[in-house]
Amino acid sequence: MAASFSSSSLDPLDLAQTALKRVADIASSLGVQHRRPVCGRLGAELLLAAQYLDTAAGVPAQEERLRLRVTKLLRDLATICCWHRQTSTPSSSGNNNNNDDGHALLDAIVRLPPGSLLYRTALGEIGKGLLRITSQTAEAEKAIFHIQRFTKRDGTHKQQRRREAADNEFPAKRSTPAEYPNHINMLAYNALREHMCCSCHCDGEHLTRLLLRPPPLQNTAHNGHVQFDMLFSARAWKGAGSGHWQDVQLLVPRAKRSKKRARILSLESNDDIQPLPSPPEPLSVRVDHGQFCKLISSETRSRVCLTVHDGKLHKTGFDHLRQIVQHAPGISLANLLRIHHLSARMKVTLAYILAQSVWQYYDSDWMKTAWTSETIQFIEECAGEQGGIFAFKPYLSVRFGDEEDPLAGERSTIDGEIHHYPRVRALGTMLVEIGIGSPLPMNYSARTISSSVAAAVNEHLLQAIQHSKNERLWRDCDYPDYLAAVSSCLHPCIFGSATSMPAVGGEGEEPFIHGLKRRRDILYDKVVFPLEELLQRTRWMDQLTSISPLETPTESVPAHGVVAEQLPSPAKDADDAGAAPPAQTDPESKRKARRWLLQMRRLNHELAAAQAKPISPAARVRIAVLDTGCDDNAAFFLHSDHGSRLQEWKDWVDESEQWQDQHGHGTHLVSLIMQIAPDALMYVARVARSPDELLGASDNVAKVLYLLGPRVEPDTAD
């Protein structure tokens, strides 16, 4: 097996990328199997290196340099894979024979069929090398360090290169929607924080929920003010009931207070005149300390209207309730995904709202609380027939205080972390959970895990990356734009290119501000904008707030964490249609068929909801079914919506004018097609008595196609 990559006909970058991914999979599996976190970390670094190749190879300025460095990377990888045969570090040249063996192993897992003996042998040898090196923690850390170096931009002018690469990769930020200045977010947060010290003379604190609204509702203005919709629990939370939810509207002035007029007056009068405060709105009353608890505890069944003047909270009156919700604790996004099924439209809409909100609040104290599938909440509405839980109305569970969640900072400096931007990382994890329809299993606690916090964070990141690459989990949400947004969040190099670099001639806080602004721009370009484009192309953007509430769950959650849906059986409709009993099939096949049929029904429902007007009969799809016939007296066709879509019949076997089906196969097929295409018109031709005769019915099929061609011109013939 002394093969070499140098003789490969494949592109070296493609070859390296494939080898890295496969060795990463082996390392990740061994890390779980042997409970060895460092092995999982090594797998994560290898996977990130593969993703870095995929991302950077598309940038011409970087591709040539990558080709020069990829040989060194493959040599290091080969050394790691053969570690059980040698003791040299990846940085050294090592034994040439062992290096050749390592290249041969990599060549085998890239080129050979997965089921072949040589392929399995190569996997076993690589596994031995990985277990050997990860049993020596110091050597494993050196190997990880060498892999990490590959994704770093090196050279004598490192900062200049980093800036140029970032400019090439992220040119000009796309035009963003109208946004209000960040000081508005800070004014709202600070004004409320002053009143969060509960005066109810009991333990606990009032629960706070901030409604995350999609644009343009996010920027709703009232006479130059920005609106925040919130819910507060009437009683302090002590683990029991929280009383009712109080609907609160908070308005914050869009413009900052101007001091220009005050300065002019001071010059004219030559007196020490202070800047004039902006006058509060008429009938507003300042909310003093200790009064806020009483205000939100009142049983008035009205909306409390507040505003911020000069940084202080004022009550401006009451209004009709806008957030009419059940007076019960909400449900977290994690639990929502466990017990409910979200349609593709719901998933994309929710993902967009969360991404847009993270971008809007990115540099504010609203992010002191970690945004995760546990802190994103949903509260059931009870507005008559329009009640229920709506996917487009997520709330953030806010914890006011001076202390920031250590895992919620804008940039982390924890030694050993792979991804240093917790807010982006957490958003990527939520997008994965929404996309696959299930929360990621949490098999550890960052505070109680025996290893370091960095190991726990890296393990969770690797878990999210692995789930994002598992096509089997994505089912009805495998949109390229969505997956690109997920990849951008989870890839540390994307945001790592926008580190806190000083602007030209910058000093003090300018490096931090420059880097933060750059990362926020990247967040919009790489995450928010792709989701926005996806909504535009699917025509869902104009109907973000017209999505129906979630259906009542009908099945419990399986232990492995991926939601199994209780799907209606297509066999029921088939039996009603008079079909013959289906042949015995395995449960897995039935489950997949039911899931697929339900996905088709949901897709048709969403497409129908997006139609501006009903489809005219002339524009309907027409389908010709050439089979064993159709029994129009079956129960399925007694429904007027079904029977009216049976257009024409022709019997080429017995020349009967009556609709008939002696076997049932054709009836089943027609009913199934009508369920999948609910607006299609059906043209049925009986060309055989049973499915066994269909292979010999070519003459009848030819006659049907000849007849239907000029007359009906069906869109589809089966």
TrEMBL record:
Q: Where is the composition biased (Low complexity)?
A: 577-586
CDD domains reported in the protein's UniProt record: Peptidases_S8_S53
One Pfam family from the record:
DUF7580
SUPFAM superfamilies in the cross-refs: Subtilisin-like (SSF52743)
One GO BP annotation here? proteolysis
- Comp. bias (Basic and acidic residues): 153-172
InterPro entries with a match to the protein in the record:
DUF7580 (IPR056002), Peptidase_S8/S53_dom_sf (IPR036852)
The coiled-coil segments of this chain are none
Q: What is this protein called in UniProt?
A: DUF7580 domain-containing protein
- Organism equals Purpureocillium takamizusanense
